[in-house]
Queue: 2 jobs
Job 1
Amino acid sequence: MEFGRSFRIELFGASHGPEVGVVVSGVPAGTPVDVAALQHDLDRRRAMGRRLASRRQEPDELLIDRGVHGGLADGGPIRMHVANVDVRRGPYERLKGRPRPGHADYPALVRYGPGVDLSGGGIFSGRMTVGIVAAGGLAKTLLAARGIGIAAFTRSIGRVALRGPVPLPLAELRRRRDAHEVGVPDRERASEMERAIAAARRSGDSLGGVIECRAEGLPVGVGEPFFDPLESELAHLLFAVPAVKGVEFGDGFAVARATGRTNNDAFYWDPAGRVATRTNHAGGILGGLSTGMPLVLRVAVKPTPSVPRPQETVDLITREGATVVVTGRHDPCIVPRAVVVVEAATAVVLADLMMRGGFLP
Ligand SMILES: Cc1cc2nc3c(=O)[nH]c(=O)nc-3n(C[C@H](O)[C@H](O)[C@H](O)COP(=O)(O)O)c2cc1C
């Protein structure tokens, strides 16, 4: 379970194992490691303390046991992990042989056999994203030192959506987003989204939504032609995030309805003497390389597959039809907790491609 060439991450652990975490290689010696900032990001992903999330009580206290000394990276692999303390295998043991719809159970049982550990989703669980978030924190430090900032936010939940562009400076965007548990930088939409999630939970259902992420300050030319362009590498890691079912850049699928004249972004010299574009339909990417305009991507997150209602499935042991009732503790909507994951995945990819292209040491 590895990703990256120069800034490399390797995830380990499983949802109901002793721990989950990541080993990050490629962080230059002397890079400051701000444990409080990393912990802050892990807290943004955590369910504990949220009103509208899973009731699993995981404190997710970050432990770094290799690669950092006196607050600085030593140049070797950095190992970071959190303990799994609130583990209840019971609900999953009762499911044996009856795959839960919308989960990885069925293909995982066929591929790995009945011995595969699917408690809490095993290695397919959203809990594995702890490692992506911790690695993303290190990547953000490297990028910030080059003047690059990243912020993701909730654009829609169910049918409640933030319309139009969000032209806020990144710091203000983060401030407004963090004022609401759902991660949307708008008070009215936040309460509508909270109501929608609460209603879904009450009716035994779940909701999905869209997360948008913006990165600013990228130099021109980040991305590796031909097979590792910026879009492919970002999509590669973003699609690894459980429940992500779509990724688009700039205007994304809407370009199919545009024309060449409306879709092209015209160039001009900005007041600082840099080349900029009047519009940003391309989302800051042309030919798989960054253009220097803000990178804009959106991720579609499916509704949480575990819903507390009987669902049709099959019994792989008796070879009969069956009904499954998924118990355990689940998020009625994954989106609010996945915002920081999308931000971290974006940071990891940018750090890796910046190193590969010689933009970072
Ligand atoms: C942060 C996060 C939290 C998640 N929480 C849950 C959850 O509480 N219950 C659930 O059924 N799925 C949850 N998921 C999604 C499942 O892990 C995922 O849908 C499942 O493993 C199948 O993979 P796929 O949707 O990518 O095909 C979560 C995903 C993420 C990223």
Note: Residues 335-356 form the longest helix (22 residues).
Job 2
Amino acid sequence: MTPLRIAIIGAGIAGLACARRLQRSGVAIQMFDKARRVGGRLSSRRLALREGAALVDHGAQYFTARTPEFLECCTAALAAGAVLPWPGRLDDQRAAALAGSADDVRYLGNPDMNALPRWLAQDLRVHCEAEVCGLRRVADGWTLDFRASPSVGGFDALVVALPAEQTAVLLATAAPALAAEAAAACTAPCWAGLLAFSDSARWPDWWGLRPPTDQPLAWLARSRDGRGLIAHATPAWSRAHLEADPDAVTAALLEAIAALVPGLGQPEVATVHRWRYALVERAAGSAYSYDPALGVAVCGDWRLGPRVELAWTSGHTLGGALAGLLRTSSQA
Ligand SMILES: Cc1cc2nc3c(=O)[nH]c(=O)nc-3n(C[C@H](O)[C@H](O)[C@H](O)COP(=O)(O)OP(=O)(O)OC[C@H]3O[C@@H](n4cnc5c(N)ncnc54)[C@H](O)[C@@H]3O)c2cc1C
């Protein structure tokens, strides 16, 4: 019997979790991602210094594992060397303000944030630099159109694992009801300031802090190699400055960091990264949606909330459900 063919658009943690579960149940998966590599918002950047480089995690800082399923995934990734326990210590005064419990186990990718997605993707067929810009349902199933390469067709079903706003655009014509669900969710932007220092002697002794709420910064952390700092602006500040000139944003974030950490000194490198879709503010409230008449499903962090674990849970749950549903319909 020919295996069912499913295309998954988006190889972030949600798409990868879905793909792994589907592939295990015998479905032929192809994944497509517009970026140069898998992982989406689990990402790190190397900032070149005169001597060496600083590695900064400019998206997710660490991730918690609160459910047995994700804990099992993280334990296997730990054994494979793809994650480490987060070595950080949070600023004591503000630790109480952190979401979740102080007992949470926190992980980070090893050697960079992208390592967990790379490990999840190792047996999957993933096409990177493949930006999907259109979806068409023709006689032999779904066809994907790409911005810069020929179309690929013949898929029995589609999984869209993108941020809500991008899901709404991509599905507007192909699956309007799912597009409307995505349009009702909301993801806040985030300007991230990335600093690298040649001299880390005056470093604070915490790894991460949440500044008081009247600040433009929501989060400040040192990089894993102790050579950099990462600052995340609040959703409100990021929204208000979304289209601002990056040099002006760099200057404003530097000023805010200097106010929080007096005597830090001049960084050798200071730059910014804009996440247009960073943290979910309004989630759909269920792990996934599936339209059986169209054969289109959606998952991603916007289903459950703004965390790596919730994105993984969304994809993993969809993968399990879809494997069962497709098996039943192919036997009918
Ligand atoms: C600044 C910041 C800080 C964060 N901090 C934390 C934290 O400390 N702890 C935590 O748990 N979570 C944190 N998060 C949230 C966490 O990173 C996300 O919730 C999670 O990674 C989302 O995964 P996803 O698979 O749903 O989406 P994504 O990771 O966004 O994956 C979507 C993928 O789709 C691809 N794509 C988009 N459009 C197309 C297209 N048209 N065609 C093909 N591919 C496309 C993208 O390239 C991307 O790889 C943070 C996020 C940000 C940005």
Note: Residues 9-15, 32-35, 40-42, 59-63, 131-132, 161-163, 166, 170, 190, 192, 232, 275, 278-279, 300-301, 306-309, 311 surround flavin-adenine dinucleotide (CB under 6 Å).
